Please model this.
Amino acid sequence: MRAQWHGTTILTVRRDGLVAMGGDGQVTLGHTVMKADAQKIRRLLDGQVLVGFAGAGADALALLERFEERLRDYPGNMPRAAVELAKQWRMDRALRRLEAMLAVADARHTLLITGTGEIVQPNDGILGIGSGGPLAVAAARALLAYSHLSAPEIVRHSLEIAASLDVYTNLQITVEQLKCEP
Model:
């Protein structure tokens, strides 16, 4: 049986004119931590778009490159770039084998793009992917409802909570933010 790559947690939260995206740094192969400080959050299109990835690292980086190309093809229209990437992902034989998910956010939209061609926009502006994603989303929803923390603070605290519960998530957290449009 082949050892599986596991782990990451990516979380996006919108609040009070900010969108924040954060991720942990752990990369795990089977039961071994291979890297503790991987950078899984990227800024694309001159910093206008945040992207976080979960899944196989090389696959995610290949998708990031293609997504950035689509963003250049459709400037200012991230949803259209996401649709075009999803179509390409589904139709291209090589891309179909890629095992990764992308969380993407700009000033107006937060989207999940999956290898099955799904594009999902969360109703509440909170999106989590990876092994600790559901834990981080639950923490973020509670913090959003019962605190006055900013979006970046909610992301950081939620990722810390996920790391305390998910063995594939660590405390090497990176958080990026963008201003949102009203």
Observations:
- The helical segments are 57-73, 78-91, 93-96, 133-146, 151-165.
